[in-house]
Structures are given as structure tokens and as C-alpha cells.
Amino acid sequence: MKVNKIMTVKLLLSLAIVLGLTTSCSKSSSSKNSSRATGWKINDKKGGFQYASNFKKQATGPGLVMVEGGTFTMGKVQDDVMHDWNNTPNQQHVQSFYMDETEVTNLMYMEYLDWLKRVFPPDQENYKNIYEGASPDTLVWRNRLGYNETMTNNYLRHPAYANYPVVGVNWIQAVEFSKWRTDRVNENTLESAGYLKKDAKVLNSTAESTFSTETYLNAPSKTFGGDEKIVLKGPRNSKAKPSKTKASKDQPATENAQKNVYAQRTSGIILPEYRLPTEAEWEYAAAADVGQREYNIYKGQKKYPWSGSYTRSGKRQVRGDQLANFKQGKGDYGGIAGWSDDGADITNVVKSYPPNDFGLYDMAGNVAEWVADVYRPIVDDEASDFNYYRGNIYTKNKIGEDGKVELVTGETQKFDTLANGRVMARDFPGQIAQVPVDEKETYLRQNFDKSDERNYRDGDKQSTRYFDFSSEGDGGKVKAGQEMYDSPQHNVTTDSLGSMVRKYDKSNKRTTLVNDNVRVYKGGSWRDRAYWLDPAQRRYFPQDMATDYIGFRCAMSRVGPKADKKKRPRN
What we know:
Layout: H1 2-30, E1 64-67, E2 70-74, E3 90-94, E4 97-100, H2 106-119, H3 128-134, H4 149-154, H5 171-192, H6 200-203, H7 213-218, E5 243-244, E6 255-256, E7 274-275, H8 279-287, E8 293-294, E9 297-298, E10 368-374, E11 395-397, E12 415-417, E13 423-425, E14 434-436, H9 439-442, E15 491-494, E16 500-503, E17 518-522, E18 538-542, E19 550-551, E20 555-557
Parallel strand pairs: 10-19
Antiparallel strand pairs: 1-4, 2-3, 4-20, 5-6, 7-20, 8-9, 10-17, 11-14, 12-13, 15-16, 17-18
């Protein structure tokens, strides 16, 4: 009898354990689509909180290569013949990001110009300056004592130069190209996902009907000029359907409309913006010290983007081949004709030389490249050693009287006249108008205090030797002749007849060329000696001027984890 009771108890315990396991398994399986905060169901067809729970990782945008972030010594050069303290080595850390595999080519830039010409016809008065303002300056090839008219007439447009890096582009034009590229890539992504009408980007794009990423995110119904036939409510391939409620005696059956019908940031398919890389990002990517990493140290110091201290390859199969195109000596832009030269006298086809350890081409030679930073002689690593960047100008969306974002139109579009007289569009119709941040955003903040932070701790009034902490009521303005960087002040105005008047600053009392509108450019070009091929070397140039040896490539921030793969020793 006792034996039967014991067996019964054991049987009941076994059943309880099995039932408990079954219950816990069912709970764990259902918790995948349930909120850990509330227990509510996520992505319920009836409504409620919708989220991209199947998101895996950020897609790699067209032309980009993943650069895993890390720490490195920024500004460490092997040669500093000028001893000008322009490169004080400092430890920096950059987050993972994406960078263009090659420099932006003539073909890529011509696609941009073609789009502008189709959407904003230059023969219309409102848009006549858009195309011209974006066009590269082909006259940069001219030389007083040299015959370069062939490049002046052919380099940008002739198909023989299609895959050569674009030049004659100033810093502002490079930034505008990056913005345009962001919108075109996201426009194509949304069309592929079914959120936009197929081929609308080609057939329906006009000056009054364009796609802007930020406009779509903030006011999707206003995209493409508010044409609802183009901005579809939900993707074509979506499985989500309107839900129906059952009819009762007192209530007829109703249909609930699908929620979150437009793509949002939470959808995970809209990419971050294309932009110019920061100086820290560019130098980190060019140096590619990851190729000589041993556990948590770098073995040896690289002088160039490749290993070794020489500009020729040491590999047996290609020993002696030049690893970049650059000026090898006075009057020597490539070497003697034949095997041992670098294969180019000016720029060269991208990917003509081996990539560095990040898979990036032409991080030395070909053309030098614009980066995002405003130039200062010293990098302020005491203020920041994480994603260092000088040049922040914070803005916010302009809100209209109706409480909604205000879009730029053909009538409200603004143009800037640069110091050299070039007229460039500040924004395009269909984009959200921007205004500087004000006290609402800066009040009692510790991380930023004004809209324009370009001269923070270096160039503002507090940085000059004339600053008087006891003075009040001057609004923080600096008196003439007491500026930290007393650079020339060229000015362009318009007279009563609408003619442009250029006023050149002829003062011989200026002490520097540095101001808030000069930008850093990195890397040696076809015009430079090997000294400038060192990734840590840095130079500056006015942001509104262009040359025949400065181009650019785009970058994109990475969202999510630092790397995709799990790390292993020696990997």
C-alpha cells in the first residue's frame, strides 16, 4: 500500500514538472513578440506598438566599405620638416563607420549634375543658379606657363576620364553632393520596399515634386509635393491587412485601418546620411593600422597607408611597382616612361593601385581629399578624445504658423554668394527649412551652449589675450584687430543695378589665413611629393575654393554594434 502511494506521488510530481516546462516554454516562445515592459503584444495587426522586430543589421549603402572603429594615435608623423606644431600626436577613438571604397568619380558627379539639370532647369529664372553653382570649376587646370586646355575641356565630361576622381569641387559642393546622394539612395530603397510609386524618381521628379529623406520622415504626406499617388500608404509587399471586428446585434462590423503605413526610422530601412568624413575618421581609415594589429597593440609604425617605409611594392609578384601616383621630384610626375613609372602623370583611374587593409583605394596619391573639419593648428584632445570633430553647427526644423514643419519652395529658396562670387543654392524646394537652435535647446545644457560651435575653445573671444572677464554688456563681440585669427575679409555685394561687386581685402596687416571657413584636406595627391602621403599630414584650404588636386569621398555613420562578427584571437 505504501509503495503504491509513493509511486502515485512520484507520478504526480513528474506530471507537474512536465506541465511546468511546457508552460515556461510556451511563455518564452510567446515573449518574443511581447513587450518586456508591459507584456503587450508587439506588431499586433489590430494596432498598438509597431516595431521592426526582424531587423538584423544596417545595410551597406552603395559604394561603401565597413571600417571597424577603434583607438589610434592621431597626428603622428614620421617626418615634420617644418616643425610647425601642426600635428601634435594625441590618442583618439572613432566609432565604426562606412567610407567610400574610392574617391567620388567624374561619372558619379555627372549623375548629380544630370539630376539637377532635369529637375531644376537652368533656363528658368528661379533655378538658373542651381546647376551652375554645383558644377565643378574646370578652369582649375589652367596654368600661366603650361598648356592644360585638354584637361580644362575634357577632364570632367569625356568618357575617357569617367572613372577618374572628380576635381574642381570646393568643400561646399562636396557637402551638397553628399546630401543629394543621401536622398537618392533612400528614395531608391523606399521604392524597392514598395513605399513609393515605382519609377517616380525618374518620371515624376520636378522642381515642385522631389523626395527629401528628412521631409519624408517628418511629414511623409508632403513628399513629392504632397502627391498621394506617389507616396503610397504602406509597402506593396506588406502582409499586414486591415483587421475587421465581428458584427453584433448593436454594432455592425468595422474595419480598422493599417497603422504606421509610412516607413519611419523604426522601420530600419532608411539609411543615415552620406557626409564628408571627419579628419579623425579619414586619418584612422587611411592609416589602417588594423593590418598590423597583434592582440591589443599595433606592431610598428606605418608611414603610408600600406606597410613598410617605401612607395614601391615589396611583394615578389609585383616587386618594384609603385603603390600610388605622386610627384617623385622636380618635373617628375610619374617617372620615366615604361615599367617602373607610377602609370599616371595627373590623376589615374580609381582602383589602379592596391587597397589598404580596410579595403579602401587611393588613400594616398591620386587626389587629396576634403574632410568635414574646420582647420585649427592644434587638435584639442583635452576637450574631446571620442569622435573628434571641429565644425558643428546645430540647426532645427523650422515650424510654421500651423504648427507643422515648413518646406522650402521655389519662392523661399535661398542662395549664398561666396567670397569668390560663385552663387550656390543653400537648400532645394521640398526640403525642410532649417533655423539655428536657440535657448530652448541650449538652456542649462552642459554639452553645447550655442548653434555655431566652430570656434569653441579656439578662436572665440575667450581665447584671445584681449578678453576681459570683468567686462559686461558687449555681447561677446571681438573688436577689430583683436581677433584670434585675423584673416582677410573679402566681400561680395550687389549694386543698385543688380551687378556683382567684388571687394578684395588688400590689407597688409593680416596675420593669418585661418578663419571659420577654411577646411582641412588630407592625403597626398598627384601634385604632391611623398612627404604628404603620410595619413597624419594635414593642410587647409578655403571652403569656397577649388583646385585640380583636391577631391573627396563620402562616409556614413554606423548604427548598432561595433562589428558584425564575433572576435577570435589574432583575428
